[in-house]
Design brief:
By secondary structure, the chain is an all-alpha fold. Helices cover 76% and strands 0% of the residues. It is elongated and about 60 Å long. The termini are far apart.
Amino acid sequence: MARSSRNDIVRKSHDLFYERGFQAVGLDNILAAVGVTKTTFYNHFDSKDDLVAEVLRFHDRWWRDEFTRLLRQFGGDRPRDQLLAVFKALGHVFTSAEYNGCFFINVAVHFPDPDDPAHVAAVEHKKEMEDLLSELAGYAGADDPAAFAQELCLVMEGAYVTAQISRDAPTAEGGERLLASLIERHLPPSPA
């Protein structure tokens, strides 16, 4: 039962932080939403900062798995096709009623000090995502997988923010057009 309440606290905190922001959600909000006492909370976490760190680890694992799943869903098994599907996958996310921006961009904004552990976690997540795309680009035959991934991540970051601010469906379509030019520049032509 103890493990379940820890997981419940992490998951509910994750949702509250994503919906309302890290500073707007206090410990009392979390306790009320989960239905646990402060004693139960402190049996699992030393502080709200400790909880935030666990929520960031949770989201990082979830998003990397979900992003990979979406790339396969929209792009199939071939690395090139998965790269071509990046903005189909993101478009699926952007049009969700729950979309409230990139979780880690939000983290970086809420925790702007570059030495804050939450900000560091955001930087690490972004690096992991870039590495994931670089690896995929390497399998797809990119001439410089790291450069391709860096450029694609810049386009993705812009799309995350634009979609959050404008709630405009064509954001993903604009990203697809930019991605097509990156693929043309970095990857060999698609086999016939």
